[in-house]
Amino acid sequence: MGVCDLHCHLLPEIDDGYVSAEQFSRMLNLYAESGITTIAFTPHIYNPYVTTNVAKLRSTYQWAKELASSLGLVTYLGSELYVGEQDELKSLPIAARYALVEFGLSLPPPRLFERLSGLQKQSLTPILAHVERYRWLDPKSPLLVQLKQMGCLLQSNVEAVENGDALPYLKHDLIDIIATDNHGDETLPVRLVQTLSDWPQVAQRMENLW
Ligand SMILES: [Fe+2]
């Protein structure tokens, strides 16, 4: 499998990706032209700050998948699951295997390990979205070591790699995935490809995901 983007909000009128159908089509062309072969659409779910049109999700994805397929792109429908106070974590997993999860920025969610283990019991591997953002986590914290030991994968955003926010994690070789978290920026596909060529060890790990 070639280059994949495992985190984006590009499905039109589904969440906060504010991409029109026309922009979506142009964006897919830019993904294909930049050499990306696979896209996982990961709309927010259970995020208290974002309204997601769950009712239209499947039909919009079906339309998007056909359009992408006509350009030779492989797609998955996943989700970015906000881990808040809910008891049981329910995700729309990417390729039935990976649960992309996000958290609040300033405090770890309650019963974090118990609930992530719940995902693993559903045979899912948690991917921690934009890990560099969480102020309660850093590359050397015992919490992070524990998350890695339990098998969580760590994802950084392209922008954070470029501006240096993700460097503490990259320098310790802790990042498994770089993705765009694209909400409609047409420069991101080519920047993802560039960033992965700058960090070949991450690109290699991403090859091994499938
Ligand atoms: Fe996101």
Summed up, what is this model?
This protein is of the alpha/beta class. It has eight helices and nine strands.
Please give the structural blueprint.
Layout: E1 3-5, H1 21-34, E2 36-41, E3 44-45, H2 57-70, E4 74-77, E5 80-82, E6 98-102, H3 112-121, E7 125-128, H4 142-149, E8 153-157, H5 158-163, H6 167-171, E9 177-179, H7 188-198, H8 200-207
Parallel strand pairs: 1-2, 2-4, 3-5, 5-6, 6-7, 7-8, 8-9
The chain binds fe (ii) ion.
Written overview of the protein:
By secondary structure, this protein is of the alpha/beta class. The chain has a single domain (3-207), classed as Metal-dependent hydrolases (TIM Barrel, Alpha-Beta Barrel), CATH 3.20.20.140. It has helices at residues 21-34, 57-70, 112-121, 142-149, 158-163, 167-171, 188-198, 200-207; strands spanning 3-5, 36-41, 44-45, 74-77, 80-82, 98-102, 125-128, 153-157, 177-179. The strands form 2 sheets. A 6-stranded parallel β-sheet has the order 3-5-6-7-8-9. The protein binds fe (ii) ion. Fe (ii) ion binds at residues 7, 9, 80, 129, 181.
Average pLDDT rating: 95
How many strands, what sense, and barrel or not for the largest sheet? 6 strands, parallel
From the N-terminal CA to the C-terminal CA, the straight-line distance is 8 Å
Q: In the residues, how many domains can be counted? A: 1
Q: Give the beta-strand count.
A: 9
Across the major sheet, the strand order is 3-5-6-7-8-9
Strand content bin: 15-25%
- Helix-strand pattern: EHEEHEEEHEHEHHEHH
| CATH fold label | TIM Barrel
Unreliable sequence segments: none
Based on secondary structure, the structural category is alpha/beta
Instruction: Tell me the CATH architecture.
Output: Alpha-Beta Barrel
- How would you sum up the global shape? globular
CATH superfamily: Metal-dependent hydrolases
What is the CATH class?
Answer: Alpha Beta
* Residue share in helix: 25-40%
- Ligands: fe (ii) ion
